User: Which sequence fits this backbone?
């Protein structure tokens, strides 16, 4: 086309231009491939993490079969490994974390979107997000040196007095006498020892509050103002607007945010490594010490050999698969909101 | 006649508002509690030797080698993760429009963002630490490089995400203007788009740095730790979070004091980094068009 417009262009120049175009398009393609290769590394990291732990954990899965999941034996001296206690510890701490973090996060999000005056919202939400910036090892230290003794002194005796069949004050409470099973969850051999599933769950709760509350705050802000204003105009109170308009409108994303927090809580290592106690005795009690998958790996992998190492890899594989599924659900639920917001 | 209804609704509302404020107070209380303990216990342990002596001297020592090790590991992690992360983010924002792979990778990147870091550490152990024993006649070789790669895996999704988001904020007219002048796409990307989104990308890198500075779990089985000063990335390498981890487990209170001092230094560093990332660069983010 160029040539037909100006015939005066020398053929050498035309040739060099064609060469340059060819070079540009080749460079473009190469550039695109390099970028794509880098993007595929993200995929590779996930597949690799699952694959490598499964590969090195195969030995344990073969040796113990399905019993690996249901056996409570974790006995390196006899080379017997079962994942039940670490699984229970992981699930138990994450459950307690959600039990406390969800209502508190909801309250914070409600405060930041509906109640607080404008000038207060920025500083308070920055402060809450600061919690997310604190390294998890600091949570672990604080949990061990400060929070566990606090729980042992102020919280645990109260819980045991009210919910345990063997309370320190000697009087079995009305609740324990009338609610079956409850005492099972609050038994403890050492009433004044702070470490345990309950304490670890509380530390995790503090850790995941900023994650859950910031998702909730963000999704609450996506509710169209006219919906809320219509409800206010009909005479609703703030609470009624939140509970009947905001929450139903954002339900999926709120659950997504909760799952995001759950994913964090399941995979957290350092915050619970100290306060869980690292014992492998099966117990239903929340006040007893235990261990989680991540803390078991952190504590034992360094010295582990042979089958023990394989069992730890198998644990890592289980943890990775479970957190992957939880995070997948979280992201799917959050994505649905993003598309709704776009419309 | 219906005052009772109004009263119950009002009471309900007041209770909800009070609980919400209480929840916020609880969140802020825990923040203040943790920061206060780190400050007060950490300052009590601050001594000049913390920065001059190495961990091999135990109670009489400091954390100098751990801080140097952390610095090297973080730099390694960022050096590995930044080019890959920016490239991957650029592909997501600029090249993946027509492929199905783009949204999938963007989605999986968000999952990698909160994947358990200890499993990523084990992954690097399997693919870097174990194979390197063939190079060294059978010794399992933990190394600073392995630690750096593990940290890079954690920094990567943060950088990918911010790059992707920042590039999508760059106005489309900029692309059209450059393309209409005949600029090849790679030149457009490298010299115009990445430059326009630079401050946002730098923010992402700083946030990634803040994130990996506090990571302990992925370093346990990759960098492994070392009681001596080392600048050699092929050697086992100590890091501040890992020394804090070991010193916290230690039964000796004198060692625990050192752990608090380390925790103080680490927390201040991480919080300063994230504050810088948030405030210094967030202003320029608005005016880069």
Assistant:
């Amino acid at each position: 086309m160029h040539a037909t417009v100006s015939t005066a262009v020398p053929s050498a120049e035309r040739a060099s231009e064609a060469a340059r175009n060819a070079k540009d398009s080749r460079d473009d393609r190469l550039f695109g491939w390099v970028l794509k290769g880098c993007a595929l590394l993200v995929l590779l990291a996930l597949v690799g993490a699952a694959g490598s732990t499964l590969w090195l954990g195969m030995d344990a899965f073969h040796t113990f079969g399905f019993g690996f999941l249901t056996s409570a034996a974790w006995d390196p001296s006899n080379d017997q490994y079962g994942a039940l206690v670490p699984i229970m510890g992981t699930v138990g701490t994450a459950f307690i974390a959600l039990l406390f973090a969800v209502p508190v996060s909801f309250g914070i999000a409600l405060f930041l979107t509906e109640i607080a005056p404008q000038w207060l919202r920025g500083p308070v939400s920055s402060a809450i997000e600061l919690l997310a910036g604190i390294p998890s090892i600091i949570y672990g230290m604080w949990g061990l040196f400060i929070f566990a003794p606090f729980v042992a002194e102020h919280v645990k005796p109260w819980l045991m007095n009210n919910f345990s069949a063997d309370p320190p004050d000697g009087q079995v409470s009305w609740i324990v006498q009338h609610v079956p099973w409850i005492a099972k969850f609050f038994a403890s051999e050492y009433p004044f020892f702070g470490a345990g599933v309950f304490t670890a769950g509380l530390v995790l709760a503090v850790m995941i509050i900023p994650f859950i509350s910031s998702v909730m705050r963000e999704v609450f802000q996506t509710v169209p103002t006219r919906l809320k204003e219509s409800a206010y105009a009909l005479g609703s109170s703030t609470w009624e607007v939140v509970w009947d308009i905001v929450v139903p409108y954002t339900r999926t994303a709120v659950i997504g945010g909760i799952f995001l927090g759950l994913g964090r809580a399941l995979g957290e290592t350092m915050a619970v490594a100290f306060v869980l106690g690292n014992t492998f005795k099966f117990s239903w009690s929340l006040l007893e010490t235990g261990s989680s998958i991540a803390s078991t790996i952190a504590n034992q992998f360094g010295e582990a050999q042979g089958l023990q190492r394989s069992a730890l890899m198998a644990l890592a594989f289980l943890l990775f698969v479970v957190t992957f599924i939880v995070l997948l659900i979280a992201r799917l639920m959050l994505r649905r909101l993003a598309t709704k917001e776009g419309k | 006649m219906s005052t009772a209804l109004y009263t119950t609704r009002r009471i309900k509302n007041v209770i909800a508002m009070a609980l919400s404020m209480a929840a916020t107070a609880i969140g802020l209380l825990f923040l203040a509690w943790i920061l206060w303990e780190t400050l007060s216990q950490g300052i009590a342990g601050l001594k000049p030797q913390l920065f001059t002596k190495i961990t091999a001297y135990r109670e009489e020592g400091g954390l100098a080698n751990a801080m140097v090790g952390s610095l090297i590991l973080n730099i390694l992690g960022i050096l590995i993760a930044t080019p890959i992360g920016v490239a991957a983010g650029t592909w997501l924002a600029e090249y993946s429009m027509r492929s199905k792979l783009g949204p999938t990778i963007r989605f999986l990147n968000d999952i990698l963002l909160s994947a358990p870091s200890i499993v990523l550490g084990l992954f690097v152990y399997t693919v870097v630490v174990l194979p390197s024993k063939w190079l060294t006649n059978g010794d399992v070789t933990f190394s600073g490089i392995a630690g750096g790669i593990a940290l890079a895996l954690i920094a990567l999704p943060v950088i990918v995400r911010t790059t992707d988001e920042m590039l999508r904020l760059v106005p489309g007219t900029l692309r059209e203007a450059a393309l209409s002048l005949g600029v090849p796409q790679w030149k457009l990307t490298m010299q115009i788009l990445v430059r326009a989104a630079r401050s946002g990308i730098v923010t992402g890198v700083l946030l990634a740095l803040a994130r990996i500075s506090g990571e302990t779990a992925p370093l346990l089985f990759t960098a492994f730790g070392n009681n001596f000063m080392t600048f050699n990335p092929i050697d086992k390498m100590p890091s501040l979070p890992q020394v804090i981890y070991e010193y916290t487990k230690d039964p000796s209170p004198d060692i625990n004091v050192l752990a608090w001092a380390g925790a103080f230094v680490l927390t201040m560093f991480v919080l300063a980094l994230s504050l810088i990332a948030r405030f210094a660069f967030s202003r320029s983010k608005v005016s880069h068009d």
User: Anything to note?
Assistant: The domain at 49-286 of chain B is CATH 1.10.3720.10 (MetI-like fold). Chain B has two domains: 1-45, 49-286. Residues 3-45 of chain B form the longest helix (43 residues). DSSP finds twelve helices and no strands in chain B.
